[in-house]
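User: Could you check the structure of this?
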Amino acid sequence: MEGLEVQADIGFHDFEIGTPQRLMISVEVWLDSADLPSNDDPNRAWNYDFLRTEIQEIAAARRYNLQETLAKVIFDRVAAFRGIRALRLRLSKPDVYPDAHGVGVEIASFAGLWP
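Assistant: Sure, the predicted structure tokens are below.
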């Protein structure tokens, strides 16, 4: 899932507290080949709706001081999904600086560009 836009009460500066900010969240998952469906059964499909809903609910559940904290909560939740072999999560605030696309953090369950 790339560039999911959510709102979150995040930040530790006085002007950020209580003022939800726009966040962009991208999640890359590598599925375990042993868990891939052996047929074309839609019931065995990766559930993007569930992934999207979980991320939105986590972002709205409470206020966060740090992007790192929110990223870790989302990462841990997604990592618990069925069939995940590896995971990378990117989270950024796109509205911090007018001359930057965003400021954020990335967490991956592996080193390098891909597992």
